[in-house]
Design goal:
This protein is of the alpha+beta class and 161 residues long. The chain has 2 helices and 8 strands, in the order αβββββββαβ. Helices cover 22% and strands 30% of the residues.
Length: 161
């Protein structure tokens, strides 16, 4: 099982790669991938006191997979955004791959996300506010984009207190 020591950190070239879609033939691997993602997220929560979701490439799994666990686990396979709102909001974003750095970014206030669940069933969710921001952050990881690359300006970085 993967642990916090397996988490890719800022500067690792794999964090800048675009992930491949999860294929139906990958489904037998899904249970282990999700267990690894869940374990590392739990370790981050214990050590840094944050973490609501994690993207597969942060553990070197170069597949379009996001695991979120706020009040219950949700698995997003091959997520795609539709209907991004024109309204943006600014916030200080954090990332497990650089846990002590905060980055000021702009994100869409609302969105709809289409994805496959762990049973390979098409799903759609509407999100707004902090959940919208969270999924934008995680899907960016699948596209090799870090929040450092979305900084509002060159003064949009600060250390976590």
């Amino acid at each position: 099982m993967k642990t916090l020591n397996d988490l890719l950190l800022l500067g690792d070239p794999r964090l800048y790669e675009t992930c491949q879609p999860v294929l139906k033939t990958d489904l037998p691997l899904l249970k282990n991938w999700v267990a690894d993602l869940d374990n590392v997220m739990r370790e981050i929560r214990l050590k840094y006191n944050f973490g609501r979701a994690i993207a597969a490439p942060q553990l070197g799994i170069m597949k379009r997979l996001v695991y979120m666990n706020i009040d219950r686990p949700v698995i997003f396979i091959n997520p795609e955004f539709i209907d991004l709102s024109g309204e943006l909001f600014e916030l200080w974003d954090d990332c497990m791959s650089f846990p002590n750095l905060l980055v000021k970014v702009k994100r869409h206030r609302r969105l709809t996300i289409n994805y496959l669940d762990e049973h390979w069933v098409q799903q759609s969710l509407k999100m707004e506010g902090d959940l919208s921001e969270l999924l934008q952050h995680e899907v960016d990881h699948l596209n090799g984009v870090l929040c450092t690359m979305r900084a509002v300006d060159d003064k949009s970085f600060r250390w976590r207190n």
